[in-house]
Amino acid sequence: MRFIFLTVLTALLVVFLNPVAPFWAVMIGIGLISALLYPNGIGGFMGGGLGMGLTWLGQSIYLGIVTSSPLPDRMGELMGMGTGMTLIGITGVLGFFLGGFSGWTGVLFRKVLQKEPKNIYRG
Questions:
Q1: Can you spell out the DSSP letters for 34-59?
Q2: Is the whole-model pTM more than 0.85?
Q3: CB 26 within 8 A of CB 52
Q4: What distances in angstroms separate CA 25 from CA 14, 49, 99, 121, one per listed residue?
Q5: I want to staple 60 with a disulfide (CB 3.0 to 4.6 A). Which of 21, 27, 88, 122 is the partner?
Q6: Cα–Cα distance measured from residue 65 to residue 55, given in angstroms and rounded to the nearest whole number
Q7: What is the pLDDT along the chain (123 residues), one digit of tens a residue?
Q8: So where are the chain's domains?
Q9: Exposed (0-12), middle (13-18) or buried (19+): which is 31, by Cβ within 10 Å?
Q10: Cβ contact 49:99 at 8 Å
Q11: What 3-state class would DSSP assign to 116?
């Protein structure tokens, strides 16, 4: 349940904060959300990654369709990737990794702040 909640909150954060703030501010926000929700390590990585990656992918496709701009195709050819859809796919993968590592960082930050018992035998 925390994983789905983290994914949805991450997607909403990216949709509303990305137009007005740089990507690194969104990454800090994902880390804070992940630290507050406290999923496990893989849940934080996948929740943040899917939220940001799918949102970046969806926004790229949406802007390409709405504007009917030849710019993605031209940039893909200029970079030697062929079509613009390859460039859009790479944007989604990059968003996945940025969001994933942000979520994982939030989980690890929360673990650093937790106190561990002083009794090594825990008995």
A1: HHHH---HHHHHHHHHHHHHHHHHHH
A2: yes
A3: yes
A4: 10, 15, 11, 42
A5: 88
A6: 15
A7: 888 999 999 999 999 999 999 999 999 999 999 999 988 889 999 999 999 999 999 999 998 889 888 888 888 888 888 888 888 899 999 999 999 999 999 999 999 988 877 777 765
A8: 2-113
A9: buried
A10: yes
A11: coil
